[in-house]
């Protein structure tokens, strides 16, 4: 049953892949630590370079996954030291992390968050190893109708869980799907929404899309943050760099519980590290906050979200590798990266491309160890990254974005398109949209349409096929429940209270 | 009705949905075995988008913080710098345009002139060699610069 893992370690332990896992961990931590650049932006900016290196699929994925997990480590730096979350997953880390830093315990706080991240990620990677092959075996039975229902469920779960405003999350996803329809229709060869532009026949390129959406819009947003004077930018002294065993043991309950919570939330399609961090923090506060120390620098309040967000990051690989449905915005980007290699992740991947699935999982084990080894002693070095001024950072991002897009086809149209998408992304973010649904819609939309059309071809146009099997009917009901319950439950409770 | 950002957005999106639907309806499919065809999916999306946008028009959220005039000018300046970068990228070559853009962006992010120029030179020349020699990416070199290098 674990043949894939043994084979995977064979792949991941090759000198090239070991080096890439290390490089990914290092770059990811650096990018995560940079203010304003989270895992998704880090991958968006560095992905074109991974292609330029001409790496095989599994090696590219190992590098990108290393960047992803590394950035989850790096995101805590600015949360703890500056009270500015590096990305959405690290919001909860500020609550107890920054007070600890103000008490002169910045060093131990960084150390503890590294250990918690390691524990959370380990729990989730073990879970991934155990459950992914099982889920893949179930998913082999999925036909096009089941996949279509699964994607409807994924979008429903995303609308409810991701972002503050469900309507805007849903609109973002629809816009993403619409952007994905541009280009030649694979079923009939008809051109859709190309407006006679030959550059659009192949659709809007994935790299152009994510660099525009994330890197360019980030440059514009940074300009606003630079003008707002909300943080002094002074890094508090780190103090002693190592966390003591006693402190780690004090938090062991929080770490283990939150790791489990994070994994489960990460597995749910469409919900990522930010939800995991919030749920684990509130759970832990309810369970262990007897003296009211949470929020004032309680180590457990730091350990919980840190363990959970890394667990969620690893957990979101489960649906991506087994069903081809990404669990988070970042795994959506990784999925798109795989599709550029003509690999469509799904239930067959464990049997057909075990070197990719197994290699990735094995490299997550290795990367996790590398990250712990890097982050404990080098916390002080990574913290220096925070002092890089924006006027160095922004031109750097711009150059990477331009080169990344230009080297695709040596074509300027792609660069103009990237700028247009960048402005679009900026406006969406200003209007309170989160970009993860847009990218999920863009990546999943094509698959969703294909599966819908394949299902209806099989049935000869009868719509019933979409909910005929037990699995698809269950998924439709689950999707409907997800959409209706958050709206219905409070009303029911209110009605009941009103009567009593 | 109050004019809120979400209302304007909602109306624009309804317009977009109508456009998507009209374009989809006008698609001409010569021959197909596929009972659904390329029209249905965009049409469903257009209906969904219109319905969701209608909710936005009827129940707009808070207006958020929009840039004031001086910030808007800066944002447009940064965009203009990126656009000029794209326009001149192949004509003047990577090094020259990256130098210009880096200096312009660094200035927009409040770097002093000296530091901006130094960053520009280091970044433009350094990244050129990293990308071309290190990573094997071919970049427009700008032939007019060749004799100087």
UniProtKB/TrEMBL annotation, chain A:
<feature type="transmembrane region" description="Helical">
    <location>
        <begin position="43"/>
        <end position="68"/>
    </location>
</feature>
<feature type="transmembrane region" description="Helical">
    <location>
        <begin position="465"/>
        <end position="489"/>
    </location>
</feature>
<feature type="transmembrane region" description="Helical">
    <location>
        <begin position="356"/>
        <end position="376"/>
    </location>
</feature>
<feature type="transmembrane region" description="Helical">
    <location>
        <begin position="388"/>
        <end position="408"/>
    </location>
</feature>
<keyword id="KW-1133">Transmembrane helix</keyword>
<feature type="domain" description="DUF112">
    <location>
        <begin position="18"/>
        <end position="440"/>
    </location>
</feature>
<protein>
    <submittedName>
        <fullName>Tripartite tricarboxylate transporter permease</fullName>
    </submittedName>
</protein>
<keyword id="KW-0812">Transmembrane</keyword>
<dbReference type="Pfam" id="PF01970">
    <property type="entry name" value="TctA"/>
</dbReference>
<dbReference type="InterPro" id="IPR002823">
    <property type="entry name" value="DUF112_TM"/>
</dbReference>
<feature type="transmembrane region" description="Helical">
    <location>
        <begin position="109"/>
        <end position="132"/>
    </location>
</feature>
<feature type="transmembrane region" description="Helical">
    <location>
        <begin position="170"/>
        <end position="191"/>
    </location>
</feature>
<feature type="transmembrane region" description="Helical">
    <location>
        <begin position="415"/>
        <end position="445"/>
    </location>
</feature>
<feature type="transmembrane region" description="Helical">
    <location>
        <begin position="138"/>
        <end position="158"/>
    </location>
</feature>
<keyword id="KW-0472">Membrane</keyword>
<feature type="transmembrane region" description="Helical">
    <location>
        <begin position="12"/>
        <end position="37"/>
    </location>
</feature>
<feature type="transmembrane region" description="Helical">
    <location>
        <begin position="203"/>
        <end position="223"/>
    </location>
</feature>
<feature type="transmembrane region" description="Helical">
    <location>
        <begin position="323"/>
        <end position="344"/>
    </location>
</feature>
<feature type="transmembrane region" description="Helical">
    <location>
        <begin position="260"/>
        <end position="281"/>
    </location>
</feature>
UniProtKB/TrEMBL annotation, chain B:
<dbReference type="InterPro" id="IPR009936">
    <property type="entry name" value="DUF1468"/>
</dbReference>
<feature type="transmembrane region" description="Helical">
    <location>
        <begin position="40"/>
        <end position="59"/>
    </location>
</feature>
<feature type="transmembrane region" description="Helical">
    <location>
        <begin position="71"/>
        <end position="88"/>
    </location>
</feature>
<feature type="transmembrane region" description="Helical">
    <location>
        <begin position="117"/>
        <end position="139"/>
    </location>
</feature>
<protein>
    <submittedName>
        <fullName>Tripartite tricarboxylate transporter TctB family protein</fullName>
    </submittedName>
</protein>
<keyword id="KW-0472">Membrane</keyword>
<keyword id="KW-0812">Transmembrane</keyword>
<keyword id="KW-1133">Transmembrane helix</keyword>
<dbReference type="Pfam" id="PF07331">
    <property type="entry name" value="TctB"/>
</dbReference>
<feature type="domain" description="DUF1468">
    <location>
        <begin position="8"/>
        <end position="140"/>
    </location>
</feature>
